[in-house]
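With this grant's support, we have paired protein sequences with backbone structure tokens. One protein thus recorded is set out beneath this paragraph:

_____
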Amino acid sequence: LCAGIIHGDLSEYNVLVDSHGPVIIDLPQAINASANNQARQLLLRDVQNLAAYFGQFAPELLTTDYGNEIWALFQSGQLSQESVLTGRFERVEKSVDLKGVMREINDTLKEEEARQLAIAIRLKRERAG
């Protein structure tokens, strides 16, 4: 993810390890993390797949939330290869200004209605004249 790419089908079978460290293979389904609406879900699934597998050998991994922690760092522009991960993630819930959202929607609807009316008037004048 530091390179902006999400594997999309990561499992223990796609990680090879040699004396130089791990290498991820099988990338045909990899996606651009910034350009795909499913990026977060795919990352969470990839990380969960690895945690479930390695959790067989290190059960403490089964209660971690590395996926959300990594995604939050990526979203904020703070993710790097040097990022120290804890496996903990605290969700910050913010209340939604529903009245403000509805105001924006209604304003947009009024603008579109006025635009459509102006087009209709212009077309009527063109046909008449």
